[in-house]
Amino acid sequence: xxxxxxxxxxxxxxxxxxxxxxxxxxxxxxxxxxxxxxxxxxxxxxxxxxxxxxxxxxxxxxxxxxxxxxxxxxxxxxxxxxxxxxxxxxxxxxxxxxxxxxxxxxxxxxxxxxxxxxxxxxxxxxxxxxxxxxxxxxxxxxxxxxxxxxxxxxxxxxxxxxxxxxxxxxxxxxxxxxxxxxxxxxxxxxx
Length: 191
Fold this sequence. Notes:
6 helices
């Protein structure tokens, strides 16, 4: 259980916000099956995979809103929510690259950053939780928009818009990664 400020009761990690987060993780393989069935060629399955991706992404905002508005913020949620994001985005990026909709080097840079920051968060967990900042949240939004755009069967020349959005997301991914490293270094130095 998470200890709350004095005078309040502890919040159980098994609350509605965390259940939504865990459900997001379990929907990721379903999304992957939809993409594979589409082969990034079949418009119907592409639309279905895009719709499911957007739905899973929307639940990210729902679980955060539930946690904050109902006082259900927990250490588990702070850690599980980014992991759910990484699973969803990572799966989408790998599949998009596999089907030649996104260059592999973009996927590799993003995944190295995401996995590195997740490992870093776990390494400093005994000292403090590094919550997602505004830049990290904007990076996630841009990645989600870019991926959704790339999943949808847009006609030319609209199909390239997703690559431009992904370019902006890539820049933020690198910049926020450096910021997380700096915060972790400062925390480690302070302890």
